[in-house]
Amino acid sequence: MALQGTIKDFALPDIFQLIGLQKKTGILTLSNKEDTVTLKFRIGEVVGADNPARTLEDRLGEVLVRTGVISQAQLEETLKAQETTLQRLGHILVNSGLISEDELIEALAIQSHQIIYRLFRWLDGEYKFDAVEDLDYDQKHFVPIGAETILMEGARMIDEWPIIERRIKSPKMVLRTTDAVAGLDLGLEDAESLVEEDLEFDLGFDSDRQAQPEADEPAATDEVKLSREERQILTLVDGKRSVGEICDLLALGEFDVYRMLADLVTRAFLEEVPREQLHVPKSKEGKVVGKAAAIMVQILVAVGVLFAVAMLHSNSMTPWKALAAQPATDQFRHYASMTRLEKISGAIQVFYLDAGTLPRSLDVLAQNGYVRSGDLLDPWGRPYQFELSAGGYRVLGLDGAGEADSDLTVSRRLSESQRLMLAADNPGS
Fold it and tell me: Between vectors from CA 25 to CA 22 and to CA 31, what angle results, nearest 5°?
């Protein structure tokens, strides 16, 4: 019997957890009013991601042409050969010597990850999982993606999108470089790549590095550190290209591009081109998403997870019920708690951006609509602890046995200027 329902009733993270922990093999189809996506699972791992309207091979060919790896003429010749041989596009490109196997593996990984992680921004839709005995996939060039990896990265993306969208408001947004870029050497020869690292925003919340300079005081030219990808992005920003067009020109995932653009805006290397200075006719572009809309996106994405946990003991139709008696249920709750902690931390950061100070308690977040009151309880029904100090803050949770767990603790440090602001707001502390 197929597993099916709506994302509002059984959230996407829960679907991935269920398939991953039970090591299912089959095809998951997700659809909403705008799009349809199919994911192939083999023994609980994603081994394929596709969109019937624009297949992965179509995307692959387009990306390789846009990024200059192959020409349009070479792509058309390859497509003709594909019609004759019925072989995969990537297989033909590699055998023809047009791209290397490593280039193909990287391109497939970027495109498939982008398809998967866009799903985490869906607010509604339907899903259906059809189990099969076995399925075929490109074992040579597609690296299986574990469900746990998808869940952790997806949770981080959901947490960071509201912050990104405060800087990068729309794919139609047009950016230009500031005077701070004028003296920079944007040569790519000696630039180190940071795509594989965990890039963090320069908001002063980084717990592992010293705080960066404030946005209106960019670092001196000889101290500026830019990754290869950041330099590449700066060379593409010309005051005319939209954010969406810049994404299309880079062989990077959409999320990584948006995140680096947001960071460059924060560091005052980029700024938005005022609408009146754009040499394009006014379109029907929607109004800028404000505080309420940005927070609502974050809250609605979390509703499905919270509903599934809340119905764990009372809804006999939910797939969680079938696993309630198994030890894996605590692992579900552990993952859900990690995700919820990151959401709370994200809400604290958004509150800081809006109010200029940190909340005195987590209840303040719920009272002002940044989270629901239920978000402040862990999956076992216990309240999260919040510790605020002059140096930063911590949000702490406990594991299923009621013990402290480093995985369930989120700590953030404040920059020097933020500490001074906090001290001024709390003169008695």
Answer: 100
Which domains does the chain show, CATH number per domain?
3-156 (no CATH), 175-277 (no CATH), 308-425 (3.30.700)
Using the 8-state DSSP alphabet, how is residue 277 labeled? G
d(CA 228, CA 224): 13
Task: Report the greatest alpha carbon distance in the chain.
Answer: 78
- CB under 8 Å, gap of 24 or more: what pairs does 34-42 form? 37/115, 37/119, 39/116, 40/135, 40/137, 41/129, 42/134, 42/135, 42/137, 42/144
For residue 2, what are the contacts with CB-CB under 8 A and spacing of at least 6?
A: 128, 129, 130, 131
**Nearest-angstrom CA–CA distance, 407 and 389:** 21
Distant-in-sequence, close-in-space partners of 20: CB < 8 Å, separation ≥ 6: 44, 45, 146, 147, 148, 151
Cα 91 from Cα 400, distance rounded (Å): 48
Tens digits of residue pLDDT in 232-271: 899 889 898 899 888 877 767 788 888 899 999 998 899 9
Q: CB 100: neighbour CB atoms within 10 A?
A: 12
Distinct helix (H) and strand (E) counts, the chain: 14, 11
What 3-state class would DSSP assign to 211? coil
For position 319, what pLDDT does the model report? Answer: 44
Q: What is the mean pLDDT of each run of 10 residues along the chain (429 residues)?
A: 78 86 92 91 91 71 77 87 84 87 84 84 88 87 87 78 85 90 67 44 40 45 72 89 84 82 90 78 45 54 52 46 47 76 84 82 88 85 86 87 87 68 55
For CA atoms 64, 68, 71, 74, the dihedral sign is negative
* Of 112, 156, 103, the residue nearest 137 (C-alpha): 112
Q: Using CA atoms, how far apart are residues 147 and 41, in angstroms rounded to an integer?
A: 9
Residue 89: C-alpha distances to residues 99, 102, 110, 252 (Å): 11, 15, 16, 20
For all residues of the chain together, what is the average pLDDT? 76
Q: Which pLDDT score is estimated for 200? A: 40
DSSP H helices, 45-195, are 56-66, 72-85, 89-95, 101-118, 147-164
